[in-house]
Amino acid sequence: MNPQAPPKLSLPGVKHVVAVASGKGGVGKSTVAANLALALRMAGQKVGLMDADIYGPSVPIMFGLGTVNPQTTPFPLEKYGISLMSMGFLVDPSQAVIWRGPKVAQAVQSFLGQVDWGQLDTLVIDLPPGTGDAQLTLSQSAPLTGAVIVTTPQDVSLIDARKGVKMFQEVRVPVLGVVENMSYFVGDDGKRYDIFRSGGGRRLADEIGVPLLGELPIDPRIAECGDAGEPFVRKYPDAPVSAAYAALAKRV
Ligand code: ADP
C-alpha cells in the first residue's frame, strides 16, 4: 500500500464509475467520453460526466456551455439529461489554468467529493491524457469500476496507451477494454479506408488480455458536432457511429 495514496472517496449514490483514459491527447478521448455518456443516457441510464482535464477542459464546448457564477450556480450543471462538471464552468477555457500538480489533484478530488452527483447509474470521468498527477490521484481516490482506454490505430498512440494501462494495473483498477477511435473511414463509394492503418486497438487489447470494446470510424460530422455543442449520437442517433456507441454503452 502506498502511504501517500489519497483516501478512497465513496460515492454512495453512484453505481458505476467509469474512467475514459488515453496515453496521449488528440485521439478522441473526450469525444468518446461525451458520446458514451449520451449513449448510456439514451439507453435509459441516469448519467454524469466529470471532466477531469483541468488544463484543457472540453466538456463545456462539446455541450454548448460556458463559465457560470459558482456563488449562485449549483453543480453539477445539467444538459441533454446529463449531470456535468468541468473546470471550464469555473474558468474560461481560453484563460490558461497554471497550477502545479497538487492543486490539480485537489481540484479533481473536489469535483468528485464535493459535487452532489446524487443518484446515478454511471458516472463517466473524462481523464486528462497521459499518466500525471490528476490521473494518478483519480485512479487512487475515485471508486472506479474500471477504465476504458481510447487509442487510435497507429503504433505511436499504442505505446502511450500501454503506459496508461500500466498505471491502472499498478493502482489495481480493472481495464474494461480498449476502444479504437478513428479506426477507418467509409467513403462516398461505400468502401472502407484504413487511414491510420488498422488493427492496433485489437493488438493492444489482446496484449493486455481485455476486450476490444469498439472500433469507431472517422466521421467529419463528429468534429462538427463537438464544436457545435451537441454530441454526435444525439444529433445523428441513426448513424452507424451511433450504433457503435450504443453497442459500447452495453459493454462498459
Ligand atoms: P482528446 O480528448 O483525446 O484530446 P478529442 O476528443 O478532443 O481528443 O478529439 C480531438 C479532435 O478529433 C476533435 O476535434 C474531435 O472532434 C475530433 N474527433 C474525435 N474523434 C473523431 C472521429 N471518430 N471522427 C472525426 N473526428 C473525430
Description:
The protein is of the alpha/beta class. It has one domain (18-251): Rossmann fold (3-Layer(aba) Sandwich), CATH 3.40.50. Helices cover 36% and strands 20% of the residues. It has an eight-stranded mixed beta sheet with strand order 3-4-2-5-1-6-7-10, sandwiched between helices. Strands 8-9 form a two-stranded antiparallel sheet. A hairpin with a 5-residue loop joins strand 8 (185-186) and strand 9. The protein is globular and about 55 Å long. The two termini are 28 Å apart. The structure holds adenosine-5'-diphosphate. Adenosine-5'-diphosphate is lined by residues 22, 25-31, 58, 129, 181-182, 216, 218-220, 222-223, 226. This is Iron-sulfur cluster carrier protein. Keywords: ATP-binding, Hydrolase, Iron, Iron-sulfur, Metal-binding, Nucleotide-binding. InterPro entries: Mrp/NBP35_ATP-bd, NUBPL-like, P-loop_NTPase, YlxH/NBP35. GO terms for molecular function: 4 iron, 4 sulfur cluster binding; ATP binding; ATP hydrolysis activity; ATP-dependent FeS chaperone activity; metal ion binding.
Summarize the structure.
With 252 residues, the chain is α/β, with parallel strands linked by helices. The chain is built from 9 helices and 10 strands.
Percent helix among the residues?
Answer: 25-40%
Residue ranges: pLDDT <50 for 5 or more in a row?
A: none
- How large is the share of residues in beta strands? 15-25%
Query: In the CATH scheme, what's the topology name?
Result: Rossmann fold
Question: How many domains comprise the coordinates?
Answer: 1
Bound molecules: adenosine-5'-diphosphate
Rg, alpha carbons: 17 Å
The SSE order reads EHEHEEHEHEHEEEHEHHH
* Superfamily (CATH H level) name: P-loop containing nucleotide triphosphate hydrolases
Average predicted local confidence, pLDDT: 91
